[in-house]
Design goal:
By secondary structure, the chain is of the alpha+beta class. The protein has 3 domains: 132 residues, 2-Layer Sandwich (Beta-Lactamase); 138 residues, Mu homology domain, subdomain B (Immunoglobulin-like); 108 residues, Immunoglobulin-like, CATH 2.60.40.1170. The strands form 5 sheets. A 9-stranded mixed sheet has the order 11-13-9-8-23-21-16-19-18, with no helix packed on it. It has 11 helices and 23 strands.
Length: 540
């Protein structure tokens, strides 16, 4: 048999879907389907097939539609009917009700199932269960493409951050009266050649008053920066004791130096990037199991979750040789065969034992785990949340930005915070990094239920707002007033938090008991800890 095409049309002859398996044009298929309508209307036979001069139509009516198999006239009618039945079964898999809108919504899945049944016009020897298995298989190329797209989005976000900081820095320099000079002008000014320095000074002597003032301010800042190491070296040589020159004066160079040092502390160009603080290594009484998870999320300004990802690992530490022959029994609530979680075991772990029984044990039962008190990751997992899925987002955030009514050039930024019900632990040291470098910022007390404070302001991280702790089930708001040129300059806002003493994991992965691999009825004593921290958590 040779299947030319399979189509779905309405009773009135309107084509909805069609898949061609041979080299045939769309116009020709449309012509054949229009001929079918006339043949069925004039047919008085009880059979579910009709023929014309060139092709045979094998069809099946359902509700207000026909599913039609177009073959050549020499095709085996028995095989055609069997193929048509398989097409109908695969279509019923994706349709709960035969509605035209639903057919269009599931068109891609329906046509994909048709492609599994027919290859180059010939039927494959497949059952419906095999077709569903093939359609549900994951694509390695698709995963690679998703990783590439995610990396592109991350690079674009980093570039936006860099440009926002650069624009903010230039605007701050403009307000402070510092001229914006190019690379050649910077080299020209910083040269040690006295002729070039004199030429630079003579040029500004003929310049406008504003340019002269900017030049003098720049020279004064260079002079103050050069005098700081001299004063420090004098203080170090005297050991901080005895008479100090200018010790009783509070103005002049001493005051300027103190002011500059204070400015550098709050606006250091080499400020470290914000990171979640790592806890001290927990005490191990024999066997210690650590469940470590890292969450990433991209949240829109309206609070919608655009993407989310959770990565975790189960680590084992053993410091007693007598406890090294162990097996870890995962909580029965954890579905090890859940395709939403991509579980991966260590190469020395019996993977089939884990998938079938939820037990983490070595392939060779005669061997033991290392007992050098070093962490060994025996299980890893990864889960990617769908769009608008907040199950992997422990802290949901909505942002509201509006121009300040009382202050010109200021914006009121309100962050609505809501703890996810699925996470049963508090979040510690929550930080919001707003990519704007300005000292003109304040926290509004009327919307500060969580005691938010401004932790630091620097050129690298911008404004860092800190909340010491957010309890379980909290719903609150934090409001700030910030100086900025544009609303977009306030984004993206990076969010950092962690919990190094959690009672449970965000994924639900936990351990019910640890038993001996030599005697599974013999339970072993163990301790467990759970941690959660952010990796790339931002409001775009």
């Amino acid at each position: 048999m040779v299947v030319i095409a399979v189509s779905i049309i309405t009773r009135q002859g309107k084509p909805l879907l069609s898949r061609q398996f041979r080299d045939i044009s769309k116009d020709r298929v449309t012509e054949l389907l229009s001929n079918f309508q006339g043949l069925v209307a004039n047919s008085s036979s009880q059979h579910t097939f009709v023929e014309d001069e060139h092709v045979r139509y094998v069809y099946k009516p359902f509700d207000d539609y026909y599913i039609i198999l177009i073959t050549n006239r020499q095709s085996n009618i028995i095989q055609d009917l069997d193929t048509l039945k398989l097409f109908a079964q695969s279509m019923n898999t994706y349709l709960s009700s035969f509605d035209e809108h639903e057919i269009f919504e599931n068109a891609f899945e329906i046509l994909s199932s048709f492609d599994e049944v027919i290859t180059m016009g010939y039927k494959e020897n497949l059952s419906m269960a095999q077709i569903n298995t093939y359609l549900s298989m994951e694509s390695h190329e698709e995963k690679i493409q998703e990783i590439i797209e995610r990396n592109k989005e991350f690079e674009a976000a980093e570039e936006r951050k860099r440009r926002a900081k650069e624009i903010s820095r230039k605007e701050q320099e403009r307000k402070m009266g510092i001229p914006s000079m190019g690379l050649e002008a910077t080299r020209f000014q910083s040269s040690n050649d006295p002729n070039l320095s004199n030429a630079y000074s003579s040029y500004y002597s003929q310049a406008s008053p504003a340019a002269q003032q900017s030049y003098y301010q720049t020279q004064q800042q260079k002079l103050m920066a050069a005098e700081i190491p001299v004063q420090n070296s004098v203080e170090n040589s005297l050991g901080g004791k005895g008479m100090k020159l200018g010790g009783g004066r509070r103005g002049g160079l001493g005051a300027s130096t103190a002011q500059l040092q204070q400015t550098k502390q709050t606006a250091s160009p080499t400020a470290p990037l914000l990171q979640v603080e790592e806890p001290e290594k927990p005490t191990n009484e024999g066997i210690l199991i650590s469940v470590r998870e890292v969450v990433s999320a991209k949240i829109s300004r309206e609070g919608n979750v655009e993407s989310s990802e959770l990565k975790g690992s189960l680590e084992l530490r053993v410091n007693d040789q007598e406890l090294a022959h162990a097996r870890i029994v995962v909580d029965p609530k954890v579905d090890t065969k859940d395709k939403a979680f991509q579980f991966k075991t260590h190469p020395n772990i019996d993977k089939s034992l884990f998938l079938n029984s939820g037990i983490i044990g070595l392939r060779d039962t005669q061997k033991a785990f290392p007992f050098n008190d070093q962490s060994l990751a025996v299980l890893r997992w990864r889960k990617v949340g769908a769009e608008d899925d907040s199950s992997l987002v422990p802290l949901q955030i909505s942002s509201w930005v509006s121009p300040s009514e009382s202050d010109q050039g200021m914006f009121d930024v309100t962050l609505e915070l809501e703890m996810n019900e699925s996470y049963s632990d508090a979040l510690e040291n929550v930080r919001f990094a707003i990519p704007v470098y300005t000292q003109n910022v304040r926290v509004n007390d009327e919307f500060n239920d969580l005691g938010a404070t401004i932790e630091s302001i620097d050129d690298e991280n911008g404004i860092v707002v800190k909340i010491a702790s957010i309890a379980v089930g909290t719903t609150a708001a934090v409001s700030l007033t910030i100086e900025a040129d544009l609303e977009d300059a306030l984004y993206p806002i990076s969010v950092l938090f962690g919990n190094h003493a959690a009672t449970g994991s965000l994924s639900g992965v936990s351990v019910s008991e640890v038993v001996s691999s030599r005697d599974e009825k013999n339970p072993l004593p163990y301790g467990s800890v759970a941690t959660l921290k952010t990796e790339e958590y931002s409001i775009e």
